[in-house]
Amino acid sequence: MNSLLSAEDNNFPFKFQEYEPQLYDIRSHILHFYSNIKDLDLSTKAEANLSDLYEIFSELDELGHRDVAEDLCQALLRDPLIRSLLPAVYTSYTHFFSLHETHLARKILDCKEPWEMLESFPLYSRYEDMIKTHVQNSPKIEVLAFIGCGPLPVTLLIFSKLYGIRCIGVDKDPEAVVLAKSCVKHFGLEKEISIVEGDENTLAELDWDSVLVAGLAEPKQRIFRNLHSIIKNRKSEPENPTSVCYRNYSGMRQLLYWPVQPDQTTGFRKITEIYPSGKVNNTLVFMECE
């Protein structure tokens, strides 16, 4: 049996034999997932049967939530074959996430009881737990700006309804903005939540005191560079710096999407990093300008 790791990884600081069975098991699941999506038109599949698409991506989701040793995780991420597949995996995950939000948004707009339908959404409890953690670890938030709110701004709906926080959602996709605005109105929260089309530069003209960057918002380096410039040009009190948080992928969840790299947040100082528990996908990273 050939080793998963290349010769350059032979100095990895653990006994490879101890992890080899788990590595091959995880690798086989990733290969199976890739074989299912590599020639699949996700949009067509979503229109035909969204449940089947959920089933395909549940395999990736389960892998992301495995509790494994850090050495094993790093060995897997350094496997040349897995590294070669990850760009396609990440692209498909982004597309799937957008599709399921769009379909759910349209379904909710046809429903007379939108909160009831939203709360029955399988991922709703994950959002609720993550936002509770965000609020508990943030300074008091008056107005939250969310970069990459998407077509169904679940994050903003929860921040507003459960915590009374005014919100601004920003997205560069015109279709997502139209749907998000319609959803906010359908939930009766148009006075509490504003949706604007644009990128992070749009925030230079708006009033907010806390910003959240979505896990799938791109490109990260440009977003953080522009945010740094905007915040530095704002007149904020030194004892009350602007709160910045981004959603990241860590541990095995790095199989779901690209993690933020240190050089992408130049100019910011990390305050705290809160790793997810249960089925929550995102690590929350809180920062402030240096």
Which terms would index this structure?
290 residues, alpha/beta, Rossmann fold, seven-stranded mixed beta sheet, 10 helices, 14% strand, globular, disordered N terminus
Plain-language structure description:
By secondary structure, the protein is of the alpha/beta class. It has 2 domains: 99 residues, no CATH class; 159 residues, Vaccinia Virus protein VP39 (Rossmann fold, 3-Layer(aba) Sandwich), CATH 3.40.50. Helix content is 48%, strand content 14%. It is built from 10 helices and 7 strands. A 7-stranded mixed beta sheet has the order 3-2-1-4-5-7-6. Strand 2, helix 9 and strand 3 form a beta-alpha-beta unit. The longest helix is centred in the N-terminal third of the chain and has 30 residues. The termini are far apart. The N terminus is likely disordered.
Lay out the secondary structure.
Layout: H1 16-37, H2 42-48, H3 50-64, H4 70-77, H5 80-109, H6 114-120, H7 124-136, E1 143-147, H8 154-163, E2 166-171, H9 174-186, E3 193-197, E4 210-213, H10 220-233, E5 243-248, E6 268-274, E7 283-289
Parallel strand pairs: 1-2, 1-4, 2-3, 4-5
Antiparallel strand pairs: 5-7, 6-7
- Spatial order of the strands forming the largest sheet: 3-2-1-4-5-7-6
What's the order of the H and E elements? HHHHHHHEHEHEEHEEE
Under the CATH scheme, the architecture of the largest domain is: 3-Layer(aba) Sandwich
| CATH topology type of the largest domain | Rossmann fold
Q: What's the total number of strands?
A: 7
